[in-house]
Amino acid sequence: MAQRKTLQGNACPVARSVDVMGDRWALLIVRDAFDGLRRFGEFQRSLGMAKNILADRLRKLVAQGILETSPGADGSAYQDYALTAKGQALFPVIVGLRQWGEQNLFAPGEPHSVLKERSSGAPVPALVVRAQDGRALAPVMTWVEKLPGSTDST
Amino acid sequence: MAQRKTLQGNACPVARSVDVMGDRWALLIVRDAFDGLRRFGEFQRSLGMAKNILADRLRKLVAQGILETSPGADGSAYQDYALTAKGQALFPVIVGLRQWGEQNLFAPGEPHSVLKERSSGAPVPALVVRAQDGRALAPVMTWVEKLPGSTDST
DNA sequence: CCGTATCCATTCCGATACTG
DNA sequence: CAGTATCGGAATGGATACGG
Questions:
Q1: pLDDT tens digits, residue range B51-81?
Q2: Looking at chain B, which residue has its C-alpha nearest residue A91?
Q3: Would you give the distance in Å from CA B103 to the centre of its chain?
Q4: Which residues, listed in sequence order, are joined to residue B142 by a DSSP beta bridge?
Q5: What span, in angstroms and rounded, lies between the C-alpha atoms of A108 and B127?
């Protein structure tokens, strides 16, 4: 009865995105993946979450094509988890949340973490760029052409 | 025991934002508020959600300073809900989710809704701008100066 | 070290009935 | 119309214990 209402099939792209990413952990896992985290244990320590639900979220993110597994960069028999192109495309969302939080959820002068520099040599290029000097990445609005296939309302 | 772990106090701005906005409905309510929705019933019809949890979410969003109530623009004795400046600052996040959804959650050519034009004359200026011609708003990355009070790591 | 499985409490959410 | 009250089912999340 109290079936959870799926928002897929909804005509609004925001609704579909929320359906996929709108939970407590998905976005934080993706954030950590942008920071270069790859291993189960790294995510688990970083997020301090129970292993069973981490496993569940990783599975869902892989099923959604946001993360993909590879056979373990070091010798270990286990998986590495890395962002796909679809996952990397979430970068503006992460940055948007980061900046909103910085500007609205911190007391003036209260210290906060910054975008982390990649530790290994893998993809995620957008983030690496920041490292050398003190500048940070910010989303701004710009004009683009109308997108095809649009209908109206909600 | 299974106390929900609060992410406030976390040094990462993304975590704090997720703690506030990372649930199924908060972002969709804010999206509707950007579309000009103001009344309880409007949100309820638009989102198709149960009235009790809508009431709960509206209360929490007001408590967070994201929405604010005013005594009802028409005669009615009830509340209007409108975005505060803090709520309007979520605009890049909404747009980011929208675009990610458009590009990654829709089949090629599948129709989707577009940003709705404001119906009344209230604030939310950023969205109104779009109406006249066919252009849409998109987030892009740009460089900004280093933000003050930053420490390191997640 | 990487997960899976089990258990349990809490929270979420939908349906409905009810009040003013 | 704008909520509140209550209910029950489902999902979430934490704490282990366990096996590869």
A1: 999 999 999 999 999 999 987 666 676 889 9
A2: B96
A3: 20
A4: A138
A5: 29
